Amino acid sequence: MPEDEFEYVNNSRRLADLVDAIRSSESIGLDTEFIGENAYEPLLCLVQLAAAGRTWILDPLAVNGLEPFWEALTDPDKVVIALAAREEIRFCLRYARRAPGHLFDPQIVAGLVGHGYPLSHTNLVKNVLEVQVNGRETFTDWKQRPLTPHQLEYAADDVRHLHALRDTLTAQAGKLNRLEWLEPECHRLVDRVADDEREERWWKVSGSTSLGRRELATLRELWRWRDATARDLNVPARRVLKDELMVEIAKRKPASTADLFALRGFDRGDLRKIGGELVKAVQMAMALPQADLPTTLRRDDPPQVGVLGQLLSLASNGVAAENRVDPQLLATVSDLQDLVRWKLGVNGSEAPAVLEGWRGELLGKPLLEVLEGKRHLRVTSLKSPNPLAFEERPG
Questions:
Q1: Phi/psi of residue 34, each to 5°?
Q2: Distance separating alpha carbons of residues 377 and 313, to the nearest angstrom
Q3: For residue range 36-95, what is the model confidence (pLDDT) as tens digits?
Q4: Is the CB of residue 216 less than 8 Å from the CB of residue 250?
Q5: What is the rounded CA–CA span in Å between residue 16 and residue 121?
Q6: Helix (H), strand (E), coil (C) string for 285-311
Q7: How many angstroms separate the Cα of 344 from the Cα of each of 79, 195, 305, 368?
Q8: Rounded-to-integer distance, Cα 333 and Cα 327, Å
Q9: What are residue 376's DSSP bridge partners?
């Protein structure tokens, strides 16, 4: 690639130029390359940006003092354009302590205007802009230096078309009268990522739904110990202690290291070294008063929740097809089951998210009428891509 097609930022002078470019721009295209397999948190290896009409490749392994960069990037007045932006949001939260002020995720917006979801960068650029770009460097070791011209070309391509994607997708959303959908939906992703970063995820451990309250308290203490240890060692948490072993300890609640080492899977020398700390975590959970124990994660739903959730999924998919919205963005099966629980009075009186905003406008009336028996399902045409219709009952 000709050198003038992008700016390679690997010293403080070029970093200052980049920060100035970001500060002068209303919107900034953003992508990152990172390695996350062998560390507690992903190692950021490269940051690609499109700002002030130029393409920039920032090498965070070569430049110190990146605080002004992250501050400028997350300025509340700036729009950050990032595709499948979950990791980019996380890096902003880690290094700037705040999320982008305004996010535009072309992958999400494409799903709202009929292009499908989730589309890869290559397919999205091709479908929306009719431009062919090379696929990603899937197996590249991005921390190696120097980077080859071929690697830099791939990296720069990831941001070159982001502004054009934003302009085209926004115009398409305008034609469909959906401009008001875009920012709330992208902000929803920001909120989900921020919530994930803040919360303790012990309750997501596989097998936790079968545990009682005291066992869950034990699992929580074990998870906290494992998370702190993994952070200190900068290794993936499962490398410290696997989920299945934590669940087994929570079930057995060993009172001593002898009890712990009697469990299957504890014959490894590295696990024996931490036996005392694991038993201490169990003892902390056993000492908690009953009022401080977490509630059980098991949900004993009425049988109709599963059945009606599937039925509503058919109705939701039909609404999605009629309105050129990707069904995955419109409503998940979990969303629809929440609606059934709410209608049954199982989950309190608060209306589910699927009845709010643009989703409520599209789905609220047809889904509630299905649940109230006012609509029925009919096959309209076997040859139609959407052969099912939920129609109002006569009379």
A1: -150, 165
A2: 12
A3: 888 999 999 999 999 999 999 999 999 999 999 999 999 999 999 999 999 999 999 999
A4: yes
A5: 29
A6: HHCCCHHHCCCCCCCCCCHHHHHHHHH
A7: 42, 28, 9, 12
A8: 10
A9: 391
